[in-house]
Amino acid sequence: MLEILGRTSSINVRKVLWLADEMALPYERQDWGAGFRDPHEPEFLALNPNGLVPVIRDGDVVLWESNTICRYLAGRHRRTDLLPQQPAARAHVEQWMDWQATELNTAWRHVFMARVRKSPAWPDDEAAEASAREWNRHMAILDAQLARTGGWAAGEDFTLADIVLGLSTHRWLQTPMAVRPALPAVQAYYQRLCARPAFQPHGRDGPP
User: Given pLDDT bands bounded at 50, 70 and 90, which one contains residue 112?
Assistant: First the structure.
């Protein structure tokens, strides 16, 4: 059976959990991370030398990096609806997945850590405000894309891109901000996500 290692408060762990539920895959989850077993223990570092969650074990296959895990699971179970085989269609999905992992995550890190996690290492100061502004700018890029497609991040169909961007959208809506712009396509997108049963425990009803 698929094993998923990581705490549910991690947005990256929840990507994998949501996808597993979306595909109706049986799995077992083990708590690793803040408040649970330390991922810097030798046992965990033998699986992921970065000491980060999630990690999966699928038989003899061990993988880390959440977006890579999502690609693997979709490919392993031949879910070409979630990750197309045709090169251009697949590239459009992966483009938005990579954008989430690099550009979007970088934008929100400071303000989220300051105002939701309340980490003393990330003070709620002008840098947090700058982070919020940059996050809003990136969400406006997503809004424009959703307005063009009229449906999902990479086009008319729900894909892996929506797994990763859907959780980022939930985090954006749940993080306190002095100014949150009205982004109607993002708001409509979130309502479509909320209608998906597998999103509800990991997104709508889950932590930011």
Answer: very high
Write the CATH number of the domain with boundaries 87-200.
1.20.1050.10
CATH of 2-76, one of 1.10.40.30, 3.40.50.300, 1.10.10.10, 3.40.30.10: 3.40.30.10
Structure confidence by residue, pLDDT tens digits, 75-105: 999 999 999 999 999 999 999 999 999 999 9
In this structure, how many other beta carbons lie within 10 angstroms of the beta carbon of residue 141?
A: 12
Read off the tokens for 35. Answer: 């408040």
Which residue, 179, 178, 190, 106, is CA-closest to 142? 190
pTM above 0.85, yes or no: yes
Burial category of 178 from C-beta neighbours within 10 Å (exposed 0-12, middle 13-18, buried 19 and up) = exposed
